Structure formats: structure tokens, C-alpha cells
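subagent[fold] <- orchestrator: predict structure for attached chain, return C-alpha cells only, no commentary.
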Amino acid sequence: MATLKTNLNTSLASSKRRAVFIGSGLLGSALLSSALLSSALLSSTLAHAQTVPSDLLEISLEDLFSANILTSQEETIAKKRWHLSYHFATSRFDEYYINQNSVSYEDVLWRPGEPRTSDNYPVVPTEISQDVHAVLVGYDFSPTITLRASLPFIRQSSDHISIVPGYDEFNITSDGIGDAVFLADFVVARDINSVWRVGAGISVPTGSIDEEGDTPRAAGNQQLPYTMQIGSGTWDIPLALVYEKYDEGFRWGGAVRGTWRTGENDRDYRLGHKVSSEAWVTFTQWGIVRPGLRLTYRWQGAIHGQDSSLSVPNPAFPYPAPVADPDDFGGEQVDLAGYLEADLGGQGWTARLEYSRPVFLDLNGPQSAEDFHVSFRIGTSF
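subagent[fold] -> orchestrator:
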């Protein structure tokens, strides 16, 4: 069994990949504009690496930066300075990708008698699920400055298959308070029916990076892989540029967002930097019920450094599973989302339900890919 536990995988070779998306009509034009802004923010060459599931489920910066954006006419009428909302999100991951190619669990699982390659492992996560609950608070410090904060609670579960006796199929879980985020966004230009905002903030490493569980790596509890950690362990800087325009019967907009990681955490690694660009259109002609569409491009860089406790003393194959290899993280993804917003009564309560799926994946892998993402938000201003 010791031989099986130390016969592990090498990291895949780095690859650079870019995708060009050409839109048409209103949504396509907005996406193209935000994609150009995204390119301007990416001053370094594109790398490859996986974003951990808890990171993918971090409280949406679009909720923090874009919530409660009002036209100047609406703001004059509303005069409400506090914003409070509850946010729930869930994601499922159940398929592996190597670059743009889908592969099965059996393709990724190495069995004795088969040749070892950089694409198979003795331990393979299968179905992964993450749920997040969070409270978001905003305060309009002035007509042009809004302060925002969020605190999430994250729960994760991961099923596995392996060749290690006693661990043919097993499950590990983790949960806890995630990283708290504090933001300030500023109106830099606004007229009667449009607004430009820029935002910046700080993500505080309140989430744990010391989660442990029983894995085939050794007897008893050991450090869990990057995908099962609750936080980043680093002080990070979220940034955003958001534009929204209100027209008769609909509103539309685009945004560029990023997260810059600072330094390494206490386990000698940091998660990859992130950049995304998106465009959306919301149809408002039906009054209190407003459907919409959103298209989002996401890129994330490699994990820098590594948690040495996740490897075993085998120079050729130091990693027991793809989620333990820091080079098997990140890549590019395009999501298409449909959502529904609604006003709830006349006291300022609103709700939003969104469902999204990837329509393009180019992942450094083998890497577990997101199947779908669902989010729900209910909130009020006062």
C-alpha cells in the first residue's frame, strides 16, 4: 500500500491559451468592450492554473460592486443609504477536462498494470459540491461613494475513487467562515440614464487554510488539498470597473473585475490572480419582473508555490491526486447565465435568481470542471 500511496503524478507542462469571442447586437458589443478592458488589465502573460472551488464560490464581486446602482433620477426619489441582502450560491463539479477535451474518471484514475502518465492518478475526486451563504451590507457614504462588505459561510463536499485499499470510494467535507471582503466603489461619471463606477477593496484572510480530513495519503487526518480549503490565506485586492446604461424597456452594461493576490500564505503558496469580463442585458418592460442574460469570460493564473504537506517523497510522482498538484489549477472559462429579478411588495425588497453553465472551457488539467452554478439573492434598502 505504501507503494501505491507514493506512485503519484507529475505536473502537466504549462500552456498558454487565449480565446476570442465575437458577439453580435447589444450583448455582443458590450462583451467586446469589456473584453478589451480586461486585456488592458492583464499586464502579464497568460498563465494556467485552477481556481479552487471555494474561490469560484466566493461572494460575487458583481453583487458587491453592482448592487443598488441607481440612475440619478431614481436616487433622488429613493434617498435610501443602507443596503442589506442575503446571498446563497451552489455549484457542482463532475467532469474532467484537459485543455478543451473532456475525459472520464477512468481516464484520470491510474490502476496497477497501466502505464503512469502525467494525466492519471491513484486518487481521483469525482463529484464536488460547494454551497455558500453570505450576508452583504452596503452604505452610501455620499452620492458618489458606497462602502460594502460581505462575510460568507462555505460548505464543501467531495466524493473520491482510489486504488488504495480501504479507500475505494470515500468522501471528505469542510466548512467554515470564508474570507471577509470590504470594498469601496466610486461613481466617476453619471448622467440621467447611465453610470460608470470604479471599485477597490481588501479581502481579509478569515477563512481557514488548515482544514484536515481522512485521506489515503496516510493514516488518520491530514491536510486537505487546495480545493477543500475555505479561504485563500492571503490579503487580496479586488478591483472593478462597471458601466450600466438604462434605456426604454431594458438596461445593459459591462464590467471588468480582477483579484490581485498579495504574498504567500502560511503554507507557502498563493492562489492565482483572477480577471473576468462580462456583459449583461436586463429587460425591464414587464415592471416588477425583469429577466436577463449575462455572458462572462473568466481567467485565473497558476497557484504560486505549494503546500509541501500535500506531496509524498517520490520525486517522479509527488502528488496523489490532480487537486494536490498546484500546476493543475486554472485556465479559461466562458459562462452563459439567465436570471430573473423581481420586486417583492412595496417596501424596497428585491430578489434575484440566476442559473449559469459553462459554454467554453480551456482548463489546465486533468481538472474538475464546473457543471452548473445557481445563485439566489434577496435584499432591501432603507
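orchestrator: received. Logging for downstream: The mean pLDDT is 82. The longest helix spans residues 25-41.
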